[in-house]
Design a protein that fits this description.
The protein is mainly alpha-helical. Strands 1-2 form a two-stranded antiparallel sheet. The termini are close together.
Length: 409
């Protein structure tokens, strides 16, 4: 990495560790809350409601978080995200009778704020650590950060289910808090200022005026809505209630899927450019998302049809999850690269925040629909809605410009 300073690489590593730790606890917390409260007798719609404020707060935080980061710095918002996550997790250290729907929703809302502060800071910092012409390295760094983060989130799903079964709810919470405190201390000692922005944007600049960013944001909203409409609530509840899977089995499947999805994301630049040249260079943009998006549209629709035809629903799910993970990972990785490429350097956190507002909106929409559609119409209906959302995402992305990305890393 001759063109990247040792200091930049070191800071990239520290940002990655911080993002990893947060994501590990976030994944564990998601599975912990989902399985624990389903075990207490909560319905799918009630479980979905626990995450409403989590996703809604993500929408607001993404929009304002980019502006806040531009004002006070990315390191500060990165650390604030970790501290808020510690507080959100600690709020769950109460008796079962005190963990009401409203109370847990508030704890999840705080966690949602923490997540998006951490995400915006981590993703935006990559733009600050590399020069503008390093498109190939930027794609590689984004893919590695995002892919490894999702692999860790999968590990968090596994830990959430496994630790709930083995040591219980309270001890799992304490372990997560301890990990986050250690990472906060590490950041205080070693993490330096990632940027010194001269431009201090006004609050009315939080909305993007870029057509490319706006279209990419719409595509992102429907992309993640398409995933969460069947994956976050409907699938784990279906596995547990209809197929009688244990906490550990559900957590393990969700974990393996997200880990695999994350690993594919990390290698997305090479997968996309395979066969195009010996130097692994290619143009990445709207046509890329259309190609991979069309392939992805077919997967949930095929799964929904197969569920109504074949009796072995567990086999249909297990087989269908593989191509969905692969194709969704490619699409998501290209999205994450394009937002940083399209973002202006002097307002990168604002553009990234606006984009992840759409991401959070998609997750919110998907979560709400997941609980409602599953309880009213079943898993197959969630999968059909997923395909419809993917069509909308692909249409929104079709006119995005192309960016030449040479993988010289």
């Amino acid at each position: 990495m001759a063109s990247a300073s040792t200091q930049s690489i070191r800071q990239y590593g520290l940002v990655t560790v911080s993002y990893w730790a947060f994501t590990l606890t976030d994944g564990a917390l998601r599975m912990l809350v989902l399985l624990f409260f389903h075990g207490l007798g909560f319905s799918p719609i009630e479980i979905a409601s626990l995450f409403i404020l989590y996703e809604l707060s993500g929408v607001v935080t993404s929009l304002l978080g980019g502006w806040i980061a531009a004002k006070i710095g990315l390191v500060t918002t990165l650390q604030c995200g970790l501290l808020l996550q510690i507080l959100a997790i600690a709020m769950l250290l109460r008796d079962d009778q005190q963990l009401t729907i409203v109370y847990v929703m508030c704890a999840q809302a705080l966690s949602g704020v923490a997540k998006d502060l951490n995400k915006i800071s981590a993703k935006s910092s990559l733009k600050s650590l590399l020069p503008d012409h390093e498109h190939g390295r930027l794609f590689s760094w984004v893919a590695r950060l995002t892919g490894s983060k999702n692999a860790l989130k999968g590990a968090g799903f596994f830990l959430g289910g496994a630790l709930l079964s083995s040591i219980g709810f309270t001890f799992t919470i304490v372990l997560m808090i301890t990990l986050l405190i250690a990472v906060v201390i590490l950041g205080i000692i070693f993490l330096k200022v990632l940027e010194s922005p001269e431009h201090k944007p006004a609050i009315n600049q939080i909305f993007s005026k870029s057509t490319a960013i706006n279209r990419l944001s719409v595509a992102r909203l429907f992309l993640f809505g398409a995933r969460d409409v069947w994956f976050v609530i409907a699938l784990p509840v279906y596995l547990q209630s209809q197929l009688l899977w244990s906490y550990w089995q559900v957590g393990s499947l969700m974990a393996l899927w997200v880990v695999g999805y994350g690993l594919i994301q990390a290698f997305a630049p090479k997968i996309i450019s395979m066969g195009k040249s010996n130097k692994l260079s290619s143009e990445v943009g709207g046509s890329t998302l259309v190609f991979w998006g069309i392939l992805l549209v077919a997967v949930p629709a095929a799964m929904a049809i197969a569920l109504s035809v074949y009796k072995s629903s567990d086999l249909v799910i297990l087989v269908g999850l593989i191509p969905f993970a692969f194709l969704f990972a490619i699409n998501s990785s290209v999205h994450s690269y394009l937002i940083l490429s399209f973002a202006q350097r002097d307002r990168v956190s604002l553009d990234v925040g606006f984009y992840y507002m759409a991401n959070a909106g998609g997750r919110l929409l998907g979560t709400l629909l997941s609980g409602f559609m599953y309880q009213k119409f079943g898993l197959a209906s969630c999968l059909f809605v997923s395909s419809g959302m993917l069509i909308a995402s692909t249409l929104a992305a079709h006119s995005l410009p192309q960016i030449t990305s040479s993988n010289n890393n």
